[in-house]
Structures are given as C-alpha cells and as structure tokens.
Write a structure and sequence with these properties.
Layout (H helix, E strand, L loop, with lengths): L7 H13 L9 E8 L12 E5 L10 E4 L2 H8 L5 E3 L1 H7 L3 H10 L2 E5 L3 H12 L6 E4 L5 H8 L2 E5 L5 E8 L4 H19 L5 E8 L5 E2 L4
Parallel strand pairs: 3-4, 3-5, 5-6
Antiparallel strand pairs: 1-8, 1-9, 2-7, 9-10
Helix pairs in contact: 1-7, 4-5
GO molecular function, one term: tRNA binding
Protein name: Large ribosomal subunit protein uL1
GO biological process, one term: regulation of translation
Length: 219
C-alpha cells in the first residue's frame, strides 16, 4: 500500500474521525497507526522487523530518554535533558536487583548506551527491555548529546511481534491534525520502503488508545 493507495485526504479524514471517537477523557490519549501485513507475502525475517523511524513532529507528551554512560560522557549526560543517567556503578547494582532493573525499563522510553558499555548494558538491561518492545541503542561519546536526545523524542520503533502487523504511536490528541498526518505518512513510507511491494500491506487503521480502529480506505 503506497501513497497512491492511501491519499493524504483519506488519511486526514480517518485521523479526524478517530479523534472524535469515544468520550473525552481526563488525559490526552495517544493516536496510533496500525498496519496489517499479509502473512503470505512475508519472509521469515520480516516477522523480526525492528526499525526506528524519526517522525517529523514529536508527540505532545513527555518522552523519557535514559543515558547509560561513564566518565566525562556521564557528566555531559547529567548536564543534558536526559530523564535518567545510568553509570557503571548503577549497572552493577541492577545486575543483582532485577526488580529495580524492571522499574527502570518501564520508566525509560529509549535507552541510549555509550558504545563501550553495550556489553554490560545488554546483559543487565536487555532481558528487561526486550519484553517491553524496547532496545538499547549504542552511541559514541563524540555524539552531540542534546541533538540526539531531541531526535529520540521524535523516534518510534516499528516492530512486528506475534501477529503480522505494526502498531505504533504517531502522536497524541495534543498534536495538530497536520502533525498527525505527516507523522503517519512518515511511518507508512518507512514500511513501504521496508517491504518494497505494496501487496504485502493488507490494511491500515488509525485509532486512539481507547478508541475503535478507523480503517483508512485505499484510493
């Protein structure tokens, strides 16, 4: 399914309908895009898909970026807008405190790891991040950290789990319609680039967290 099959006008119409679904709640619901894939068109490796997409617009919610670092890079991280900085001493503590490790895994939307610490971070945090659909991301100390953090505030992970579909947040009710349309278009383009053939995509839906899915009809 491509931009020729999902026109911007139809995408906008579906998002507008989804936003009107259900009663108003005391919190801003996320807006999610669901892309259903045809199992018959997928290769075995497609069912292990994990791709990071940087959306044009960040969701209107707090995205918590955690940094695993040591030395001068940890000092830089503590002076940044990171939600949490995890140094080697904390990793050592977490290796024998699975409950605290799980708590950190729940709290961090993205975990960026200094390349030299990827081995120990993967061993300690990997088992608690993986089941939550999260992955540690290696970074080098020469990275412009503030810029990287801002980029990951716009990042989403496209992942195929047990079912042949990708479900990803494209924003919240706090985002404008234009922002949601552009974010959805970026996700669709990334999926199209991944699968090459439009026939691998069976259907596309948009929904609020607690709303019913609205199908985006092909042109």
């Amino acid at each position: 399914m491509s931009q020729q099959l999902v026109e911007v006008g139809r995408l906008r119409e579906a998002i507008e309908r989804a936003l009107k679904e259900g009663p108003k709640r005391r919190f801003k619901e996320s807006v999610e895009l669901i892309v259903v894939l045809k199992r018959s068109e997928l290769k075995p490796e497609d069912m292990r898909m994990r791709e990071t997409v940087f959306l044009p617009h960040p969701p209107k919610k707090d995205v918590r970026i955690c940094i695993v670092a040591e030395g001068d890079f940890a000092v830089q991280a503590r002076n940044s807008k990171a939600y949490m900085v995890i140094d080697r001493s904390v990793l050592d503590e977490l290796s024998s405190n699975r409950r605290k490790a799980r708590k950190i895994a729940r709290a961090c939307d993205w975990t960026l790891v200094q390349r030299e610490l990827m081995g120990v971070a993967g061993r300690v945090l990997g088992p608690v991040l993986g089941p939550r659909g999260k992955v540690p991301v290696p970074i080098v100390p020469s990275t412009q950290l503030e810029s990287l953090i801002e980029s990951y505030r716009r990042a989403v992970l496209l992942r195929v789990k047990d079912q042949p579909q990708v479900q990803v947040r494209i924003g919240t009710e706090g985002n404008s319609i234009d922002e949601l349309v552009e974010n959805a278009s970026a996700v669709l383009q990334a999926i199209e680039n991944k699968f090459k053939e439009s026939r691998a995509i069976e259907a596309v839906y948009v929904k609020k967290t607690m709303g019913r899915p609205i199908e985006i009809k092909p042109a």
